[in-house]
């Protein structure tokens, strides 16, 4: 198996993949915020939620739906800030995953990643990491 990466590059490729995978799993899981409402445990993330209140018009009360799911539409995400967070975090995860998979391919294909491509990929990775961090602001 020919490689265009040094030993440090191989370590970078595998760590990049692990970090990108962890970021993507964190993005897709609805456990960003945990709490309780109407004596039920609730959690939600940028576009998924578990155990959420729904108005029951027949009984004129609010009941808890105890299941996980995503919002019905992009506009159903509770606030503009959460919508922005969803887009920015998704873009960050996409950039991180793109760079990580390219780096892993560099472990198997010779002359795929040059020094310049490695630097550009590191810059993209930095940008992706910053996009993923912006949702916390």
Automatic annotation (TrEMBL):
Signal peptide: 1-21
InterPro entries registered for this protein in UniProt: LHFPL
UniProtKB keywords: Membrane, Signal, Transmembrane, Transmembrane helix
Residues spanning the membrane: 87-109
Keyword Cell membrane among record annotations: no
Record membrane topology: Multi-pass membrane protein
Keyword Cytoplasm: no
Pfam family, any one: L_HMGIC_fpl
Annotated Gene Ontology cellular component terms: membrane
Annotated compartments: Membrane
Name the UniProt record assigns to this protein: LHPL6 protein
Source organism (scientific name): Haliaeetus albicilla (White-tailed sea-eagle)
Name of the gene: Lhfpl6
């Amino acid at each position: 198996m020919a490689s265009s990466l040094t030993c440090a590059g191989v370590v970078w490729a595998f760590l990049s993949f692990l970090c990108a995978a962890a970021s993507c799993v964190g993005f897709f899981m609805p456990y960003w915020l945990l709490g309780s409402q109407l004596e039920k445990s609730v959690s939600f993330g940028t576009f998924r939620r578990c155990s959420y209140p729904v108005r029951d018009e027949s009984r004129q009360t609010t009941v808890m739906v105890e299941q996980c799911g995503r919002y019905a539409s992009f506009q159903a995400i509770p606030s503009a800030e959460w919508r922005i967070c969803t887009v920015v975090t998704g873009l960050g995860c996409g950039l991180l995953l793109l760079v990580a998979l390219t780096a892993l391919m560099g472990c198997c294909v010779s002359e795929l990643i040059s020094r310049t491509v490695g630097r550009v990929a590191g810059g993209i990775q930095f940008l992706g990491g910053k996009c993923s961090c912006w949702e916390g602001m």
